[in-house]
Amino acid sequence: MDFKREKEQDAECEKITAVLLKSRTGEFDLESILFLKLRGLGVHELGCIGECVNLERLDLSGNNVTNLGPLASLRLLSVLNLSANRISNIEPLRSCENLQNLNLAGNVISSTESLHCLVSLKKLENIRLRDNTYNYSNPVCRSASYRAVVLEMFPNIKVLDGERVVGRGSELYQLCKDIDETIKAGSYKNGQLIEHPDCKPWVEEGYWEIKRSNNAIIEEAYKQFNDVLHECRLLNNRASHVISQTERSMSLKKQPKQYAI
User: DSSP letters of 204-216?
Assistant: First the structure.
C-alpha cells in the first residue's frame, strides 16, 4: 500500500522536493545526484532542484514548468530536456556554461530574441525547438526565416531540430534533402525521370568494385576470416539443431499422460 501511495504521489507532484529527488535517485545527498529523470510528473515548480549542483543530465519533459530560475545554479549540466512544457523565458540557462544538448521543443518561445541568452554558451552544439516526431514546436518556428536566423546566431552548433548542420553525415543529409526537393519540384514527368544531357556520374566507373590487394598478409587474413566465418555458420546450424531437439523433447514431457480404460 505504501508503494502504491508513493507511486500516486509521483504521478502528479506540483513541486520538486528533496524527498522526491532522493526517492527517485536513491541518493541521500542532493549534491551526489548526476542524472535525473522527472518526465511527465505534472511538475509546476522546480523547487530545490538547484541544490543538485553536480547534475549533468536532466529530463523534465512533459511537465508544466514555466520558471527556469532554479536551473541557474546547475553549471555542470550538459544535457537538458525541457520539451513539452510551458516555457517562454529561458534566461536562467545563461549560467549553464557546460550545456551541450538542449531540447526546448513543445514550449511557447515566441521569438529568436528569446534565444540570445544562449549565445554565450560556447559548448552548445545541439538545439531543438521543433520535433516533428511528436508534433512539438514553438511559435518562433512559424517564421520563414527561423532556421537561417538561428544558424546565424549559433554558428558553432552541429545539430538543429534533429538535422545535422555540420560534421559527419551533414552532406549526406543535405543531399537527400535536395533530392526530395527536386522530386517535389517536378523532375518526374509521366512517372519517368527527366534526363539531362549535361549530367555527370557522381563517381568514376569501377568505383564500387571490390579491389583485391596483392599483399600476401592481407590475402592470408582474408582466407582465415572466411574459414572462421564458415565454422561459425556450422556451429550455428548445430546449435539450432540441438535447440530444436531439446524443445521437441521438452514438449513431449509436458504432454499429459493418457491412460486406456
Answer: -TTTTSPPPP--H
